[in-house]
């Protein structure tokens, strides 16, 4: 179960949605309906809306900003790419890396994910590294091999201290945007496997401190069940986060979990 040492993390991945004006309106509305005190809430607008979201948040915001992706070089002739330094400059504290859509649609592999994680940490950003299996891989009983391979390859060479700035997000590819979420039991099984893999490679303390999120058709209706599941330390929300009221409901389910544990 989530322990006091692992503060719940709830992330809104807007994907390719919302203009600058819509981003500002979203932030203002979310601030009206959600004032988190015992969880971390992160918003990941598209690159073009990060500045508007940061300005709408203001200096005393309870929310944090994240980039949806990052390039592994700090600067250079890489047309269309965004560096970790640029994300940090606009106010980001987190960055999502290796999302299933980046892997599936844009062909990112574990080597690219690893370089991006290293680049993010080098600039002082916190990485949210995604991993997960396809439907075919699950049906072939390849889930364990796929997710542990992605974990080891993505975090290869990192120290125990580095891991403090990395959260994992298990998002089964077959549940992304399909409305077909994994069950809490399925999520628990994979999250426990990931934590055991962390322990075997980086030690029990690192495994205990690492936050592992579930992502994949998370809704206001099922988020509470995921937050009560053992080894689930938060959620990475896609489509359901686009409505600030709906996302606030999901975030409150994480806060309720903290209250229940006290």
Highlighted features:
262 residues, alpha/beta, TIM Barrel, 8-stranded parallel beta barrel, 12 helices, 45% helix
What does this structure look like?
The protein has one domain (9-261): Aldolase class I (TIM Barrel). β1 (9-13), α1 and β2 (40-44) form a beta-alpha-beta unit. The chain is α/β, with parallel strands linked by helices. It has helices spanning 20-33, 50-57, 84-89, 100-106, 110-122, 135-139, 143-154, 160-163, 184-202, 204-209, 223-227, 244-261; strands at residues 9-13, 40-44, 63-67, 92-97, 126-131, 166-170, 212-215, 234-237. The longest helix is centred in the last third of the chain and has 19 residues, at 184-202.
């Amino acid at each position: 179960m989530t322990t006091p040492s692992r503060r719940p993390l709830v992330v809104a991945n807007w994907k390719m949605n919302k203009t600058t004006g819509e981003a500002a309106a979203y932030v203002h509305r979310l601030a009206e309906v959600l004032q988190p005190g015992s969880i971390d809430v992160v918003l990941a607008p598209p690159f073009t809306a990060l500045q508007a979201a940061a300005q709408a948040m203001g200096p005393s915001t309870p929310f944090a900003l994240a980039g949806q992706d990052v390039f592994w070089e700090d600067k250079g002739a890489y047309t269309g790419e965004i560096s970790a330094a640029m994300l940090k400059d606009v106010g980001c504290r987190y960055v999502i890396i290796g999302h299933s859509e980046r892997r599936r649609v844009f062909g990112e592999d574990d080597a690219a994910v690893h370089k991006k994680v290293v680049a993010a940490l080098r600039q002082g950003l916190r990485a949210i590294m995604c991993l997960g299996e396809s439907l075919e891989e699950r049906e072939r009983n390849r889930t364990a091999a796929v997710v542990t391979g992605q974990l080891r390859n993505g975090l290869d060479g990192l120290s125990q201290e580095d891991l403090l700035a990395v959260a994992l997000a298990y998002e089964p590819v077959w549940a992304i945007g399909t409305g077909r979420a994994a069950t809490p039991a399925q999520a628990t099984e994979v999250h426990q496997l990931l934590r055991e893999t962390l322990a075997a490679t980086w030690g029990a303390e690192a495994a205990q401190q690492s936050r592992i999120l579930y992502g994949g058709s998370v809704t206001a209706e099922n988020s509470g069940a995921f937050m009560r599941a053992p080894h689930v330390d938060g959620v990475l929300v896609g489509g359901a986060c686009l409505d600030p009221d709906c996302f606030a409901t999901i975030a409150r389910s994480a806060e309720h979990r903290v209250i229940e544990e006290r």
